[in-house]
Amino acid sequence: MRIHAAVLRAGDGPFVVEQVDIADPGPGQVLVRIAAVGFCHTDVLPRDKGFPAQPPVIAGHEGAGVVEALGPGVTEPPVGSHVLLSFDHCGACENCLDGHPAYCRSFVQRNLTGTGIVSGGQPVTDAEGRPVASRWFGQSSFATHALVDVHNTVAVDPDLPLELLAPLGCGIQTGAGSILLALGVHAGARVVVFGAGGVGLSAVMAARIAGAATVVAVDLHENRLDLAQQLGATHVLLGSGDDVPRQLRKITEGGADYALDTTGVPEVIRDGVDSLRARGTIGLVGAQSRDLVLGPAALATGRNVRGILEGDAVPRRFLPQLIELWRQGRFPFDRLVRIYPLSEINTAERDAASGVTIKPVLLPGS
Ligand SMILES: NC(=O)c1ccc[n+]([C@@H]2O[C@H](COP(=O)([O-])OP(=O)(O)OC[C@H]3O[C@@H](n4cnc5c(N)ncnc54)[C@H](O)[C@@H]3O)[C@@H](O)[C@H]2O)c1
Ligand SMILES: [Zn+2]
Ligand SMILES: [Zn+2]
């Protein structure tokens, strides 16, 4: 079938919307017509030479759409279902069976190589018949249609607005899940969130849902800090200021119980560790490109540093909970979203990088 997709052709080049051919769904797959897809910072990682996925690749891993066809043997979700797409996982390894699919044994292969675990080549080929990596997060949804592994579909009520819900599948789930599931923030806790992008602001909202008494957002952009305050941060702090850990220990009256880093900047993480109280925990979700170096006594007081993938969520369990909280007005993540046609994907990337837009959502049909 002929579809349109935004292909990243070179690490230093733009996304190019072009016509490509997509195969019929194989065993364990469904064909989804993509109504909307969020743009997550992770979608630009194939630009880095050392990253597992490399161009030419179709990125996009916060898809939302309607099931159009089922692969052999697939009965669920039925044709016509509205689905949100999340990360892929096998469903059968120890961590999947334990209810921690983000730590699936084949997570990297399935989600981050761009080529996934497929026999018989890539399902998408370009106009010259050359293969394009099209298994990014088991979906490659910067396109009008995507072949999706059944495991990463979450069926939702057809009345819900897919263009707002699309980013739940990764960034928003990661921020909220890190607070509510992975760190298990408790009522009365003191929480610091580094980075007020889509992930960090979702964490801020989740910390308030958990009943945290103090929620501090740290960022370099004033406009993002303003929004953090509107979404529930009790305090905000410019990350460019002097002695950030000392200021944070003061605000939290001795140190944070929990911190979450969404910046991936080693110096920020080190400040985050220094702003924890004894036995406090910092979760790391930001993509890091440099080594993290901590001082010799940084962890001596029982402090913990913990890596977190996808908020440690089970998407089919967690996304409906987030949708219900949104319906109740307690999790207004839609305030982060700005909509672009898929043809404007390069503008969306620039706006996200400059801080103008927090969560771009692309509409392939417009
Ligand atoms: N681990 C996971 O499962 C997972 C899932 C989704 C996203 N991510 C990663 O999480 C990170 C955040 O994603 P996002 O969509 O929120 O990105 P984003 O770029 O919108 O947000 C990052 C924020 O960090 C701020 N920042 C950068 N340097 C800073 C500094 N020195 N001090 C204070 N603030 C600083 C930026 O101003 C920005 O607002 C990305 O690296 C992304 O790849 C990880
Ligand atoms: Zn698994
Ligand atoms: Zn993501």
Automatic annotation (TrEMBL):
Residues 11-362 form the Enoyl reductase (ER) domain. The keyword Oxidoreductase applies. PROSITE patterns: ADH_ZINC. It comes from the Bacteria. Its cofactor is Zn(2+). Keywords: Metal-binding, Oxidoreductase, Zinc. Pfam families: ADH_N, ADH_zinc_N. SMART domains: PKS_ER (SM00829). CDD domains: benzyl_alcohol_DH. Belongs to the zinc-containing alcohol dehydrogenase family. This is NAD(P)-dependent alcohol dehydrogenase. It comes from Streptomyces massasporeus.
